[in-house]
Every structure is written in structure tokens, then in C-alpha cells.
């Protein structure tokens, strides 16, 4: 079984348990459930840097990335640094995140917030909304066409935008049938963890103009971002480059200054 399959298997068990602990009806009654959401795609279209900065403690590929920063401090500092949006990992078992991380981020910043998790059940969309998310990630590698369509519709009904993640042509093709807000090309193969900007280069011309293009993972060089921008990418999802430092907010601020200069 590859890592993605393991994650999905674990996620299914987690969701079954959660549904018993907090029924959907209860999620719908939460304080944040009806708040007006922010548009990440809109923010990216108007942004000079396009940086979406991630809060990530650990990952299956790197184990520990950052165990010293708090979500509250990082969210505040990312906003001050001028990022366009923030991504918060809410998976606990493999990434050391939690739903509370998203709630704390929501309480700390007005940035558009992406709930970064492995979405495989409608329950998680209601949960994302209740936690204060503005955007959800859909990973084409673990969903079929029908799921992609169904989940995109549900996200939109809940006023959430969708960032649809692909890392090859077949995944992109099965995703294009739906009315998605943003396509994220993941430069990291989630099965082998190999990172290559080739994926972003290859898929750029295949993404229709109306969809905001985001390049994800393995981005640490301003030069690479400038190259991707020329190919039409408007968003750049960056985790480790910021999180694997003593002060992620400061690192993001320096990075954005160089990008915009
Ligand atoms: O830390 P990086 O290499 O900058 O990558 C960030 C982000 O793209 C990565 O965390 C990610 C992209 N897609 C995912 C799906 C699930 C978990 C994590 C991810």
C-alpha cells in the first residue's frame, strides 16, 4: 500500500468516529458556519506575490519540520508579511495538525484560509465550514470524477472555494469537467515524494485560462517562482521553506520582499 492509500484508509476510520462525536447538525449550528467567506482566487488575481503560506509541523516525507511555532503567531506574522492566503494542515496522524489549528488560525487572521486535508467524505466539508475555512483542497489522485463533481458542488453550496490538486495529465483531464476555482499542480509526487518543477511546466498549457493556476510544493527559489509566473501561475503554495526556519513569518516576509522587488 502506498502512503496515499494508507492516509485514506486511516482517514475513513477517523471520519466514522467523528460523525458519532460531532453530528453534522451540530456543525451546522456552529458560530462560524454562516460567516461570509473570503475568496482566495480573487485575492490571487489581485496579488503581486501570489504566496499562499502553509502551517505544517511535520510530513511523512520529512518527519519533523517545525515543533516550536504556534499557529497563532505564524498566522499573524504571515498576514503581516503580505501573503495572499494561508494553508493549514488539519490532518493529525500524518502531518501533526488538527482541526483546532484551523480554528486558531481563523481567530488570528482575516486571510483566506485553506483547509489542507484529505477530503473523501461530505462530512469533512461541513466540518471545514464550521472550523472557519474559506477554501478546501481536493486531491484528484484519491477521488474519481463523480466525487470531484459532487464535492465541488457541495463546497460551492457551502460558499467554499475549491483548490483541485493534480500531478499528472490524467488527473487534470478528469478534473476539468467540473466548475473548479483553482487548479493546484503539485510538484511533489505524493506516492514517491519526489519533487520536480517539470510537472508545473508540463501541465501549465493544459489548464484553461479561466481557472486560477497554483503551483504547489518544493518552492524555495524566487527564480523558480518568476519562471512559473511566466507560464501563467498566479499562486504559489509554500510550506517547508518558511516552516523549517526559526521564524516562519520573518522568512515569509523576506521572501515576499524579494519577490516583489
Ligand atoms: O512544504 P512544501 O514543499 O512547500 O509544500 C507545501 C504544500 O504544497 C504541501 O504541503 C502539500 C501539497 N499538497 C498536499 C496534500 C496533502 C498534504 C500536503 C500537501
TrEMBL record:
GO terms for molecular function: indole-3-glycerol-phosphate synthase activity; phosphoribosylanthranilate isomerase activity. Keywords: Amino-acid biosynthesis, Aromatic amino acid biosynthesis, Decarboxylase, Lyase, Tryptophan biosynthesis. Residues 4-252 form the Indole-3-glycerol phosphate synthase domain. Its EC number is 4.1.1.48. InterPro entries: Aldolase_TIM (IPR013785), Indole-3-glycerol_P_synth (IPR045186), Indole-3-glycerol_P_synth_dom (IPR013798), Indole-3-GlycerolPSynthase_CS (IPR001468), RibuloseP-bd_barrel (IPR011060). It is an enzyme of class 4 (lyase). GO terms for biological process: L-tryptophan biosynthetic process. Pathway: Amino-acid biosynthesis; L-tryptophan biosynthesis; L-tryptophan from chorismate: step 4/5. Gene3D superfamilies: Aldolase class I (3.20.20.70). The keyword 4Fe-4S does not apply. It holds the Pfam family IGPS. The keyword Lyase applies. It catalyses: 1-(2-carboxyphenylamino)-1-deoxy-D-ribulose 5-phosphate + H(+) = (1S,2R)-1-C-(indol-3-yl)glycerol 3-phosphate + CO2 + H2O. Belongs to the TrpC family. HAMAP family: IGPS_B. This is Indole-3-glycerol phosphate synthase. It comes from Muriicola soli. The lineage of its organism: Bacteria, Pseudomonadati, Bacteroidota, Flavobacteriia, Flavobacteriales.
Amino acid at each position: 500500500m502506498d502512503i496515499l492509500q494508507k492516509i485514506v484508509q486511516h482517514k475513513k476510520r477517523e471520519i466514522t468516529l467523528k460523525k458519532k462525536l460531532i453530528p453534522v447538525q451540530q456543525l451546522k449550528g456552529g458560530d462560524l458556519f454562516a460567516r461570509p467567506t473570503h475568496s482566495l482566487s480573487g485575492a490571487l488575481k489581485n496579488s503581486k506575490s501570489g504566496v499562499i503560506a502553509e502551517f505544517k509541523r511535520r510530513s511523512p516525507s520529512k518527519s519533523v519540520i517545525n515543533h516550536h511555532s504556534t499557529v497563532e503567531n505564524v498566522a499573524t506574522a504571515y498576514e503581516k508579511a503580505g501573503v495572499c492566503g494561508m494553508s493549514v494542515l488539519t490532518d493529525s496522524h500524518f502531518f501533526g495538525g488538527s482541526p483546532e489549528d484551523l480554528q486558531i488560525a481563523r481567530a488570528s487572521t482575516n486571510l483566506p484560509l485553506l483547509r489542507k486535508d484529505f477530503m473523501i467524505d461530505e462530512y469533512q466539508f461541513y466540518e471545514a465550514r464550521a472550523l472557519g475555512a474559506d477554501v478546501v483542497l481536493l486531491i484528484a489522485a484519491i477521488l474519481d470524477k463523480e466525487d470531484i463533481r459532487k464535492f465541488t458542488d457541495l463546497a460551492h453550496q457551502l460558499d467554499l472555494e475549491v483548490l483541485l490538486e493534480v500531478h499528472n495529465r490524467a488527473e487534470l483531464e478528469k478534473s476539468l469537467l467540473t466548475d473548479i476555482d483553482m487548479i493546484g499542480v503539485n510538484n511533489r509526487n505524493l506516492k514517491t515524494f519526489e519533487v520536480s518543477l517539470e510537472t508545473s511546466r508540463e501541465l501549465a498549457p493544459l489548464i484553461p485560462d479561466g481557472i486560477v493556476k497554483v503551483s504547489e510544493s518544493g518552492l524555495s527559489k524566487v527564480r523558480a517562482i518568476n519562471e512559473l509566473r511566466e507560464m501563467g501561475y498566479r499562486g504559489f503554495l509554500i510550506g517547508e521553506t518558511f516552516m523549517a526556519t526559526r521564524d516562519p513569518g520573518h522568512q515569509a516576509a523576506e521572501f515576499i520582499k524579494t519577490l516583489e522587488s
